[in-house]
Amino acid sequence: MAPEIGHYALILALAISLTQAVVPILGARRGNRELMAYGGRAALGQCACIVLSFAALTYAFITSDFSVEIVAANSHTAKPLVYKISGVWANHEGSMLLWVLILSIFGAALALFGANLPDTLKANALAVQGMISLGFLAFIEFTSNPFNRLDNPPLDGNGLNPILQDPGLAIHPPFLYLGYVGFSMAFSFSVAALIEGKVDAAWARWVRPWVLAAWCFLTIGITLGSAWAYYTLGWGGWWFWDPVENASFMPWLAGTALLHSALVVERRNALVSWTVLLGILTFSLSLVGTFLVRSGVLTSVHAFATDPARGVFILGLLIAATGGALTLYTIRMPTLKSGSPFAPVSREGALTLNNMLLLIACGTVFLGTFYPLLVDLLTRDKISVGPPYFNLTFVPIMVPLLIAMAIGPMLKWKRSELPQALERLRIPAIAVAAVVAITIALGIGRGFFSAVGSAIGMGLAVWLVGGSLAVLAYRVRLGLGPYETTLNLVRTTPLAFYGLVIAHSGMGITVAGITGMTSWATETVQSLRPGEQLQLSGYDVKLRTVELVAGPNYEAQQGTFDVSVRGRPVTTLVTQRRFYPIREQLTTSAGIHTNLISNIYVTLAEQDAKGAWPVRFYFHPFVPWIWLGALTMALGGFVSLADRRLRVGLPQSARRLAPTVAVGGPVPAE
Predict the structure, then answer these.
(1) Rounded mean pLDDT, 517-529
(2) How many angstroms separate the CA atoms of 286 and 252, rounded?
(3) Measured distance CA(319)–CA(546) in Å, rounded
(4) Does the domain at residues 1-165 carry the CATH identifier 1.10.10?
(5) How many CA atoms lie within 13 A of 281 on its CB side?
(6) Domain spans of the chain?
(7) At 180, is the pLDDT very low, low, confident or very high (cuts 50, 70, 90)?
(8) CB distance 624 to 599 below 8 Å
């Protein structure tokens, strides 16, 4: 009965989304407040229906209702409860239901918390959200129904892919989708503003919180995915430039550009048309990621579907959404105001440079991702584009971007002086010079170019962290005035400014982690018998035992290792080679020890003909900083989101006026 309730609720949500796509936009054109208000009620009703549908599917997984096709294909009675629940979205149909669930939650949030929006803008934005929902609910209903029944259900299911049976995979997709789908709000606001023909500072103030929230969630989702790949796949890497990894990274790059561009619109009413275009492109890149995962054009551990018919449907949605929005943009662009002029050396100029570099970097990732697919389509030749391409194209673009990240916040709006900004960064520059010199001196034995590359990476990390702290110190006049003045400025500085400092510092921490992992990681592969040991980077690793153990739904060969330094015990590592009999599949569970500065990492391979066990041992300096820095960036975003100015928007009285004047007055550096 529960699957039928879930299916009927999904059909009702489809019908509501159709009315949501039409009625409020019609009301906005006619100036009918009642029709405009319907958009909010429809968004709430649609969300309630999809919540009910998702709950019904979750109940089917928890109770092992194998009469439901995707439950039988992706669950088993012996599977732990947490993986029964995560199995809901660990398949194509269920993950699409999660996709539209999050989309409906964002629409409902706009309906509930958009009281400060002009009625017409809110109605048009909800209508666009309804159009997106309509497309994807139709996709689910006609090609990917999660409630299809089996005539002869099995006693036990097929089980979930063992690679996905991990706590990280239980929380990684929801955060990733919160980011992917969250950018639909930027798309909806952009299209709604184009329908009205009115984009200005007030619009930017309203759209920024949604963009910021989506960016934070996507940052967390990418971070969790990277960490999962590191400790679950057993290959010792944190990023492989997999096409589906790239599919999540491209909207993150575009979303970062959008976030900074919207700030220029809000503060100076400049870059108006460019910001609207970014709002369209960012969500379009999210749709591109959805297409890659579900079209069958590539094979990946991340891919959900291999049915080309589904890919054609999603491609149609992508073309309709992006093509329609870009057509409207082309029509309206000449009427959009260009905003206030600014000098190249200014805060606006720095943010424009930020946008250019981020979009160029996004373009290189896009090219590297789709070129092999295009070659395969046209010639049937199989080629791969891997780390060498991205190291040669992406990295050089990011270096000037990272340099500008510390300088930009020191510049004034409209017009500034570069020497003055650099003077305020004197102390970070001295620290960078010292770190570069030390890094080269310590690493020269590994080769000159390797040492220089490491020095540049660590120098950039120090530049970002030190520059962020210098910006904060200058903001609160630390050492430039009375102590009481500094304390007062610390109390009155907006949270958005603290968020900037935290996020930019987080980027510096991540750069340090990437540099350390790239420059100084070591590994060895040796065959050991119990009682034998290997040495690497000062560590002695002794294989104590290898034994068979039983898990909840798997059997494993478990290796136990004693790790010491100069005879002093450091830790005991346990690694497993797990066999899942239901799926007849092997996975690796790595043994990892971290002190948050470096990781030691060990995996066990299949016993060889001589009775020895191949052991792969890694030493990864600074690698935890990659994820700590990324989470720090997300924390900075949430701190900024807590700023009252981003939460309340414009006063209620102001919203009744046509928002055509830029928000003026002195603005803090953020």
Answers:
(1) 95
(2) 9
(3) 55
(4) no
(5) 21
(6) 1-165, 199-409, 410-519, 522-624
(7) very high
(8) yes
